[in-house]
Amino acid sequence: MFAAMHLIQGAGGRVITFGSNLACIGAGPLKSRDNAKAYNKEEERELFKHTPAHAFYEKLGGDGVKFNVCFDLYLASPLNFESLDLASLNRAVQMTGGDLVYYSKFDSEKHGYKFYYDLFRSVSKITASQVRIKARCSKGLSVTEYFGGFGLRELADFQLASLDSDKTFGFTLRNDKSLNESKAVHVQVAVLYVNVFGETRLRILNQSFQVIKPINQYFKQCAAETFCQYLLMQKLARIDRLGSMQVREEIISKVVDILASYRSQCAPNSIPSQLVIPESLKLMPIYVLSALKSNGLRLLSTMRQLDTKIAHIQSLLSSPFTKMALRLYPRIYQITSAYQLGSTQ
User: Fold this and answer.
1) Which residues are CB-neighbours of 338 under 8 A, at least 6 positions away?
2) A Pfam family matched by this chain, by name (predicted)?
3) What is the pTM for the complete model shown?
4) 183 near 208, Cβ under 8 Å?
């Protein structure tokens, strides 16, 4: 990765690396940090952190942004569950805006076609380079953080070596003072990038929102899919600070707080034993429960190891909005009639 980056640093581009063993020799040697004794404990958060001992990949990612080089990693673990230390390798991917694709217990017959289409998609999707992103908003609001496949950025703006059509990111707005109901609130996201033809472009996204005071009107405007993706991305981006247990607890607590607030503010006379959920958020508990059962949020065990969890977390952080709901609650198709029709021909 280091050599390939310096080979193309003058022009920039994408470095696609394939591996199936722990990088234990040469530049940036790694040691497995997977420690089953730390699973689901306070010490677990250290398994997700980028430690000083692995600073090589932190610097590699920073140099990648400087030289406009993006890193994609296609990694396959052997059948013996050998850890590849994705927590360190993924840092170079996050900082440059690349892809992390991981195949646990790789089997060519099982994963061959998936690997082919994953790689095909990687080299064929619409991609921008030399990306700089900044969000602005009206007075009374401020942007406090950005989060996505690049992790968590608590900055006014940030840069990536690459951004493609399969990525998404979010940001948090903080209400600093009372807003005037007679005026709309404006939010603008500006993305400066270079397209595949070498042309510098500026894409500006503008959105205005009406300020509303009654909390029941606020709940009516909510979108369950959007809120769930925002909540999951915001919490997962802090996995290295909080650990798996606390991330799960904070997600559940946020959902409980929202439903409790709705009951107390909008339905105070409801029967205590009655479940009261806003119509706009009636699917929220299903999406959240499905997310908690996904590999990215399920607790670690001897059958669910660290590298698999990190790969799924990275995938959830990068997943585009159009696909997130399907990942959390996949569609079900009836194939009985199609099978019977095929058997008669």
Assistant:
1) none
2) Sec23_BS
3) 0.88
4) no
- 285 by Cβ neighbours in 10 Å (0-12 / 13-18 / 19+) ranks as middle
∠ Cα 174 314 302 (to 5°) = 120
- In the chain, CATH 3.40.50.410 sits at 2-124
Domain with CATH 2.60.40.1670 in the chain: 127-211
3-state secondary structure of 254: helix
Domain 127-211, classified CATH 3.60.15.10, yes or no: no
Backbone torsions φ then ψ of 221, nearest 5 degrees? -85, -5
Count of residues in the chain: 345
Q: Token pair for residue 306?
A: 């660290």
Q: What is the pLDDT of residues 203-241, one digit of tens each?
A: 999 999 888 888 888 888 888 899 999 999 999 999 888
Token pair 């706009």: residue: 280
CATH superfamily for 213-345 is Sec23/Sec24 helical domain (1.20.120.730)
User: Contacts by 193-197 with C-beta closer than 8 Å and gap 24+?
Assistant: 193/128, 193/129, 193/130, 193/131, 193/132, 193/163, 194/128, 194/129, 194/130, 195/128, 196/126, 196/127
Q: Kindly list the distances between the CA atom of residue 260 and the CA atoms of 48, 73, 115, 119, 217, in Å, as whole numbers in the listed order.
A: 33, 43, 45, 45, 16
Q: What letter would DSSP give residue 70?
A: E
Q: Residue 274 and residue 259: Cα distance in Å, rounded?
A: 12
Of the candidates 161, 180, 150, the residue with the CA atom closest to the CA atom of residue 90: 150
Query: Would you call 131 helix, strand, or coil by DSSP?
Result: strand
Contacts 24+ apart (CB under 8 A), 255-258: 255/231, 255/284, 255/285, 255/288, 258/284
| CATH 1.20.120.730 domain position(s) in the chain | 213-345
pLDDT tens profile 114-157: 999 999 999 999 999 999 999 999 998 999 999 999 988 988 88
- What distance in Å separates the CA atoms of residue 121 and residue 134, rounded to the nearest whole number? 27
User: Which CATH number does 2-124 carry?
Assistant: 3.40.50.410
